[in-house]
Amino acid sequence: MAEKKILIVDYDVQSLESLAQIFKAYKLKIIKATDGLSAYEKFKSEKPDLVILEAILPKLHGFDLTKKISQESKGSVPIVIVTGLYRGAQYRHEAISSFGASDYFEKPYDSEKLLNSVLNLLNEEEEIEEDLPDSASIMEKLSQRIKS
To answer: How many angstroms separate the CA atoms of 4 and 29, rounded?
Structure first.
């Protein structure tokens, strides 16, 4: 899983550091931001493979940021929301169905579950890329079928 990038966004520096710490043992490049606007700029410049963000963010709300990233990446970049304020199934449902989040955790979160979710989302992305054959091999197989 080398070369994968995760953008972690939280206004609280302590939360940001503890989230980053969870992934320290893995070969992941961690990019950090403390507000929604700088997170969006880093998303565009760094092109992370996954984003973890707090819903409450200064300058650009986490739900708005989730929607922007989801739309611009056409859903190809998984977004995991980790929030201390929005509690309950209705927020989780809205974040996933309306804003495009891939997963949703309430603080305090279970580090093991968060880690597993993130690793699964990164692996799913990798598997999808591996499963897709290149266009040259598709054309080759089609031309072989036509000839036979």
So the answer is: 6
